[in-house]
Amino acid sequence: MKNKLILMAVALMMATTMNAQKREMRGAWIQCVNGQFQNLGTKKMQETLTYQLNELQKDGVNVIMFQVRPECDALYESKIEPWSRFLTGVQGKAPSPYWDPLQWMIDECHKRGMELHAWINPFRAKTKGTTVLSNSHIAIRKPSSCFAYDELFILNPGMQENRDYICQVAQDIVSRYDVDGIHMDDYFYPYPVKGQTIPDDELFHDHSNGIKDQNDWRRYNVNLFIEQFYKAIHDVKPWVKVGISPFGIYRNKKSSPAGSDTNGTQNYDDLYADILLWVNNGWLDYCVPQLYWEIGNKAADYATLIKWWSQHASARPLVIGEDVERTVKYADPQNANRHQLAAKMNLHRTYPTVKGTVLWYAKAAVDNVGNYGTSLREVYWKNKTLQPDMSFISNKAPKKVKKLAPVWTEDGYILFWTPSNGKHWDTQSVKYVIYRFAKGEKVNLDDASKIVTITDQFFYKLPYERGTEKFTYVVTALNRIQNESKPVSKKIKL
């Protein structure tokens, strides 16, 4: 028992030390296709989401990926696509009492200091469970735009009008809503099903663009879309991040010497998704491969895959898609008395190119299966962090704050400052980071444990006690992509 306690203490110390990362995406997917919100009604759904967001905030989550377009429909007010059945039970039926879930989520996430990334499924037009489509749905309005495959409808990626259509939908979201990101998952061409064939021979024959191999042509179609989509979003708002969450295997080694030592469905060969091309060409702002397997999985070992992605996909921030339930289901190969969370987090810290984690799925963390949520809030995600560096979007930052001073008020001892706002989006201050250092401590802004808060206010209430202990407070300003200004400091007795 004594040895077990020592091991637990060492593991906790290691995790606490590793927690010093200042920039890390800590996300969670909130999906609707599992039916968790269907027919809940406005009040109950808002209560459910409020509870989830509160718990995720305690866990240290700083980004929510909220599913708003599962099958060419909308969990937001749209003049282009019908209301989703995953909201009201009937596609095309507006919620009653009326509300806009996307706008509500943006407001609630921003109140909690979280980013909101609107998650869309680009080409999927009908899921298997959907039996009735609204008259305003694109598959009804333009049936030739889709093909059927394994009870799904898929917008044909080989048609330019479909690529234009998806970009139009995304631009509509970005132009009308204050989203921080637009997020796509792994649905491009459909996952292969035995006995099913993609019916695009005629389109390939008539519009091959000189490409002889049909598989290369399909990849070409998706590549065109990704490049067009990325430009379309940044043309509207340059600060809105484009994120993609591909399937966890790019290629198996048996298909390519550059592939991973795995045996499973492949992005490149089976889904016609050339993820590495997109990363290396800068057609996305962050990549979240879905590494949902456990360490030691025979077909797709987690440790093998995180190493492979860290070596091959670092041209843009690499964030790991993490299966919460599977992580706590399997034992650590090095310690049968605990599950795999600690081992996976150690792997994350082993590879500097890994810039965060997104949890599949939010409710599993909220339900605290295997004490996953508790471990996040007490150990791994205890300290506040900024988002990963994305200075490739813009390397500009706000000017430092002015007139930093502590002031006694009726509400207590308050630290005030004045922003120095620029004229362009990337020099404008939208948030502020407050650091605190004890007397004798070196001021090190790379130490996330010294961040006391990140706020959009121009003040911070100081924890005054007896006025005998001296601290140094440092304030910096952030722009929309969290580029940080130069610091301003003030010594204060508390």
Automatic annotation (TrEMBL):
UniProt xrefs under SUPFAM superfamilies = (Trans)glycosidases
Annotated ranges, domain Glycosyl hydrolase-like: 24-317
Pfam families the record matches:
GHL10 (PF02638)
Query: What top-level branch of life does the organism fall under?
Result: Bacteria
GO MF, one term, reads: hydrolase activity
**Gene3D superfamilies attached to this UniProt entry:** Glycosidases
Keyword entries, A-Z: Hydrolase, Signal
Q: Where is the signal peptide?
A: 1-20
Q: Which InterPro entries match?
A: Divisome_Glycosyl_Hydrolase, GH, GHL10
* UniProt name for this protein: Glycosyl hydrolase-like 10
Q: What is the lineage of its organism?
A: Bacteria, Pseudomonadati, Bacteroidota, Bacteroidia, Bacteroidales
